[in-house]
Amino acid sequence: MKNNDGFDPAEIAKIKSEIGEDQSYVVIESEDNSDDFMNFYFVGQYEGKEAIYDAAIYTLRLQHSSEIHELAEHKVAQKFPDYKSISYEEDENGDIEPLGDLEEEIGLYLTEVMDELEEEEAVKVQEHVDMDEHADFGIGLDVGLHVDAITPAVIEKFIKDFNGDTLKLDKTHYSFQFEDDED
């Protein structure tokens, strides 16, 4: 922990000064932040010392979807050994170029595999907090919660419960269904 600035009192003071009166965290600006995912810093205790926590918090629905996609890509790579991932190219007008025949076949197969995995409930997720004590800055937290959205209230409750050592995680395993656009 010697070279980790997340334990430096000056860095901790800087984060504290950036935290507003009505919240106890600082959002790390990222295009990944959404209603399902948020990356932020907050100050807490680690082994009796103040430390900065670098938290990535997300919904279980997002985690489930990501794991389904990852598993499906693995199955696609087994059927199509040259598969890397489908990349969409834009033309000079910013319109997406049509996929080639092979890419289209791969895309259809990927969708089919994802649907199968979902129907079989092949992936189940549960609430968790994984701590990375060897992060480059502070202590890393990877947090999955069974909530509809990652809101400021959800983040505040997590920080309060985490810092107060009163965090209770739901041990239920969940599987989700993808929502159809037709509904």
Helices and strands, with pairings:
Elements: H1 9-18, E1 26-27, E2 37-46, E3 49-59, H2 60-79, H3 101-119, E4 128-132, E5 139-145, H4 152-163
Parallel strand pairs: 3-5
Antiparallel strand pairs: 1-2, 2-3, 4-5
Helix pairs in contact: 2-3
Describe this structure in words.
The chain is of the alpha+beta class. The chain is built from 4 helices and 5 strands; from the N terminus they run H-E-E-E-H-H-E-E-H. It has a 5-stranded mixed β-sheet. Helix 2 crosses helix 3.
Biggest β-sheet, characterized? Answer: 5 strands, mixed
Give the terminus-to-terminus CA distance. Answer: 51 Å
Residues in helix, %: 25-40%
Protein structure class: alpha+beta
With helices defined by DSSP (H or I, 4 residues minimum), what is the helix count? 4
Strand arrangement, major sheet? 1-2-3-5-4
Defining traits:
single chain, alpha+beta
Short description:
The protein is an alpha+beta fold. It has helices at 9-18, 60-79, 101-119, 152-163, and strands at 26-27, 37-46, 49-59, 128-132, 139-145. The chain is elongated and about 55 Å long.
